[in-house]
Amino acid sequence: MYRLAHFIRDWCQDKRGASAVIFALTLPVMVGFMGLGAEVGLWYMTQREIQTAADVAAYTGALELRDNVATFVLEQEARSEASRNGYDSSKATMNVTLVSSKRVRVEITQHQPRLFSALFSNGGSQDIYAKAEAEFQSGGPACILALNSIEIDALTFTGNTAVSLTSCNIMSNSGATTSINQTGSSDVVADCVYAAGGIDYNINMVTTECDNPVEGVAPSADPYADVSMPNPMPTTCQTIPSFTPGNTYTLQPGRYCGNMSLKGNVDFEPGTYIFDGDFDINSGAVITGDDISILMSGGELKFNGDAEITLSASTSGDYEGILFYQDRDTSGMNNVINGNAYSNFTGAMYFPSNEVTMLGGGSMAGGCTQLVADLIYFSGSSNFEHNCDAVGTREIEVVGAVSLVL
Questions:
Q1: Which of 88, 257, 261, 320 has its Cα between 20 and 30 A from that of 33?
Q2: How far apart are CA 345 and CA 321, in angstroms?
Q3: How far is CA 358 from CA 51, 332, 369, 379, in A?
Q4: Residue 384 CA to chain centroid, in angstroms?
């Protein structure tokens, strides 16, 4: 008995190999915590992956919502983009919700099987969650639209030009790196300035409703894309007067088969006019016309800055709201509008396949003026106002940008 007690006492006092015993006892715990740390890291990586998928899906959904597609198409596109960016429908669930008419929410929950963490729980899986919301902004109506989709400097402000727009925006459909170019000491004031591509501007471009000009928006639809020349064209040609300064002339609607070079006092009776040749307004001329549409089938438009021009568009019929239309089948035309303080154009000036140079557009205060052309160059002072409710012009819709908001 004495020997047994002595052995026990010596064994308890013997500290040799204690570290090995402690290590053996704590090793499973350390390995468990290391494994748990690795598993938590895996959860984090998974969350980042499905968050990216949710962000891309929400952004895609907002793009589709902006284009007014059916809800099921929107969801299909969102799921397709999510799948290309890490979402696996066999491991996760995805919900697409229309929060509003402009906002889309995407939620993804992935069920991650537990590994080491199963030792501290009842097993099962760990739910990893990601949410994203995206919305598009309404850009509002534009009164200046450059239609060309690829040209550099599709819409340009140069020299000492001063362009002031009230209650409307500027839009260029060109996706070029410099879609809109502001150079020199030009001044531009508008609600907002938008471009499908890039915008090169300086401090003299003032946007009253946007913090800064907005790049990378979707192109605006051509509001007059269905407009064309009459078919069939009239076969009878009106007589072109021999215009001379100081005389007064009254023109009747119809087709004029040669060049029109207006001088003196000229009044357009209401109706539709077709000009096969060039349309010039000379210095000193006084031109008036209400409820008219001028269609140009083959020539250019040239307005002199010393003329006094007051014209307003048709208020009904096939060309309602259109003041000038140049046949979209023509090309290579350079139309020049050199207005002054006495120039007033009410309605849409539509040159879908050709360029327009505004050397000065006069004052359109209190009225409605739209300029839609393939390419647009401003090199003079112009004031545009967009008060078109009673004029009959079609709205130029700027769809605005899409952004993640959550």
A1: 88
A2: 11
A3: 49, 17, 13, 6
A4: 20
